[in-house]
Design goal:
Mean pLDDT: 79
Oligomer: single chain
Helix content: 40-55%
Shape: globular
Strand content: 15-25%
Structural class: alpha+beta
Low-confidence stretches: 1-39, 377-394, 524-558
Number of helices: 26
């Protein structure tokens, strides 16, 4: 697989086995096997490629699979005019060249038999076993006659679920799409464009996530040629012009070889041409291309430690471009990729990008999960260990997340849209939960995404988060390595705010939030004032406590009574009413009345919307929870003196936030539990008497009902 596949007329930059002559193989296929005692000539290329990676492979099963495939497809022709058997042969050869094991190749030969011929899954199972049957079933399309317009998204859903059990299903699908893309020119232009767009949006991201770079790069070039023909032709012209110019990369490669020989480091140094899309991206990034931009140097060594030895020599003998250094060996990408990336400048000023990896890393970088063989069969006779999501590298976080959220999207259109959005995220981060477990999330994910990844629909009750120990808004974007603790309200009736959709990046979060909002449309205007609202940022930095922390839910007889029979009272977190405040209420979903202080800004907003207030009166001045904000000048021991005054007044601190000083002023926000609401005035006086404190007031957060 190479960039030249997108340009069959170009001179091949890669030596090795010649490409399969499909027309010649087609003629052989029509004749059928000449002898049942040996492998048919038509799959000789496949056998050679397979034995190059697996010298001891038993080819008997491949012969039987070919005989069944050839006989069942006999008489069928592709739109290109070739016998249909050339397609499964080409797909099998692609996988054989990547190093796939025999079971995968057997399924590849048979992958269209159940879909396009009279062969049944039961027949495949009886002749080739359960494993091959599962792989063939995984890539078999669903019938349009049964699913209509939903056939394509539902077929992909079926393949993804099967991939969750065996990644070889998607390996076969990717090879199948690659060969179809190579021969797509026989289709109508509009159909070419449709298939290319699906390949771009779904198959290429999946190839990237499974680490199959050899398939991904060629698919990218083929899509590029169809969807952007002008840019493709311009890029091809640039590459052709560079082929006739001098080759500065070869000069630098020879210098690198000399340096490594003198250092006693055994290494293979290769010039690795960039594929078309890669050249196009570099041109967009830099404007004018340099001679060294048409390729990179690849240094292959035996051991991991040798990679760093090579890196040290290169950075010693050449001028390193520090901004280009990346260590994907110590921190592998989520698609199994490992390599050292660097760039160095030669004495004459030419800059070359260099990849340093072991031969094993290179195999995995090119073939990804295909290079793993069958990861579900232990080679030592023991059962494979299961230690969580990442114990098996073929089940990384992105795949587990995808399998989870697709279950919540029965609608094919929603699934198809969400799948494309999920696959558009090209990087993954790992964040740590407070209990030490890890969450795999796409780059750009927020605390909202972390909440739904950890708690599922229980995250509807999320009221805030602590990121690396500091209180943070739910909109906070997480970084790789962050520790996040999600805070949930005790009120099981709490729900998310519509604003959460602005911060949710994962389909799982968006689907769950949208589902809740659709089921509770009457709460959309009031959700920001409930327990679901993310904490608001303060002007001086930091975050105010999440309003939901202040939201207490009591039955009618406990502290307040409302003029609505059998209603549950919820005290709004935006103004934290306590006796003897003048209060009013507004009915929300589920027979709940949210109670606000009368001077709360939310009251005016609700009345402006035509919401009818509900009468509320206090029963007694019992225990209560309230949020107070203390404004003060900064000084030593201020926090200690304030907490001492609070304790002396008989209040307990539920939570506290101290914002960074701004112009020598400090803002403290406390959520406090009082045994009696009548103690509140005395508590506020005691806090004001602390030296340096110039104001203490009740918290006011923008909110709805």
């Amino acid at each position: 697989m190479s960039a030249e596949a997108a340009n069959p007329g170009a001179t091949s930059r890669r030596r090795g086995r010649t490409r399969l002559d499909l027309r010649r193989i087609g003629r052989v296929a029509l004749l059928g096997p000449t002898s049942r005692d040996r492998l048919p000539d038509a799959i000789g290329h496949v056998a050679d490629a397979h034995r190059a990676h697996h010298p001891d492979a038993d080819l008997t099963i491949l012969r039987r699979a070919y005989v069944l495939a050839e006989s069942s497809h006999r008489g069928q022709m592709r739109k290109s005019g070739e016998p249909y058997i050339t397609h499964p042969l080409a797909v099998t050869l692609i996988l054989a060249e990547l190093g796939a094991e025999t079971t995968t190749l057997t399924a590849a030969l048979l992958h269209d038999t159940v879909e396009d011929t009279d062969v049944t899954l039961d027949q495949v199972r009886s002749e080739f076993g359960e494993e091959v049957c599962f792989l063939v079933d995984g890539v078999t399309k669903l019938e349009k006659v049964d699913y209509g317009a939903a056939a394509e998204p539902e077929t992909f859903r079926k393949m993804l679920v099967a991939t969750g059990n065996d990644v070889r299903v998607m390996s076969i699908k990717l090879a199948d799409r690659l060969h179809n893309m190579r021969t797509l020119t026989v289709m109508r232009p509009e159909k070419q464009a449709r298939i290319a767009r699906v390949t771009r949006d779904v198959l290429i991201p999946l190839a990237e996530r499974l680490g199959v770079q050899a398939l991904k790069t060629e698919l990218e070039d083929l899509v590029f040629a169809i969807l952007h023909p002008e840019e493709y032709e311009h890029t091809r012209a640039l590459i052709a012009a560079d082929a006739t110019a001098g080759d500065p990369l070869n000069v630098i490669a020879e210098e690198v070889r000399k340096v490594l020989r003198e250092a006693g480091l055994a290494a293979e140094v290769l010039v690795r041409p960039r594929h078309f899309v890669s050249v196009h991206r570099v041109r967009l990034k830099r404007g004018e291309l340099r001679g060294t931009d048409f390729g990179r140097l690849l240094v292959l060594v035996a051991e991991d430690a040798d990679c760093y030895g090579v890196l040290g020599e290169l950075h010693t003998c050449f001028t390193p471009v520090i901004s280009e250094f990346k260590d994907f060996i110590a921190a592998p990408k989520f698609n199994l990729y490992q390599s050292l990336h660097t760039a160095v400048a030669s004495p004459d000023g030419e800059v070359a990008e260099i990849l340093i990896r072991t031969h094993r890393m290179h195999k995995v970088a090119e073939a990804g999960v295909v290079a793993l063989g069958n990861p579900y069969t232990p080679t030592d006779g023991t059962e494979p260990a299961v230690e969580g999501e990442r114990a098996d590298p073929t089940r990384p976080g992105w795949l587990s997340r995808l399998l989870e959220w697709q279950e919540a999207t029965p609608d094919p259109d929603t699934f198809w849209t969400s799948l494309r959005a999920d696959l558009a995220e090209d990087r993954e981060i790992t964040v740590f939960r407070s209990d030490g477990a890890v969450l795999g999330l796409p780059a750009g994910a927020s605390c909202v995404d972390a909440a739904y990844a950890q708690y599922g629909e229980a995250a509807h009750r999320c009221i805030g988060a602590r990121v690396n120990g500091r209180l943070a808004t739910l909109s906070t974007v997480l970084s790789d390595g962050d520790t996040v603790q999600l805070l949930l309200a005790h009120d099981i009736g709490s729900g998310p705010s519509p604003e959460w959709l602005d911060h949710a990046r994962t389909p799982a979060a968006r689907i769950a939030i949208s589902g809740w909002l659709s089921a509770h449309p009457q709460d959309e205007a009031t959700a920001p004032g409930g327990a679901g609202r993310p904490p608001e940022p303060r002007p001086g930095g930091g975050a105010a406590p999440a309003p939901g922390i202040d939201t207490l839910v009591r039955r009618v007889a406990e502290n307040a009574v409302v003029d609505l029979p059998d209603a549950t009272v919820r005290f709004a977190g935006c103004c934290t009413p306590v006796p003897p405040d003048a209060v009013t209420g507004f009915a929300v979903r589920g027979g709940v009345v949210t109670v606000h202080r009368e001077e709360c800004p939310a009251v005016g907003r609700m009345q402006a919307r035509g919401r009818e207030p509900v009468g509320v009166r206090w029963l007694a001045t019992g225990d209560c929870r309230v949020t107070l904000v203390a404004e003060s000048f900064g000084r030593p021991r201020l926090l200690a003196d304030l907490t001492e005054a609070i304790a002396t007044a008989g209040a307990a601190v539920v939570s506290a936030t101290v914002e960074p000083p701004s112009e020598q002023r400090v803002r403290h926000t406390y959520t406090l539990q009082l045994p009696d609401a009548a103690l509140l005035p005395a508590l506020m006086r005691a806090m004001r008497e602390v030296p340096g404190v110039y104001d203490v007031g009740r918290a006011q957060h923008p909110a709805g009902a």
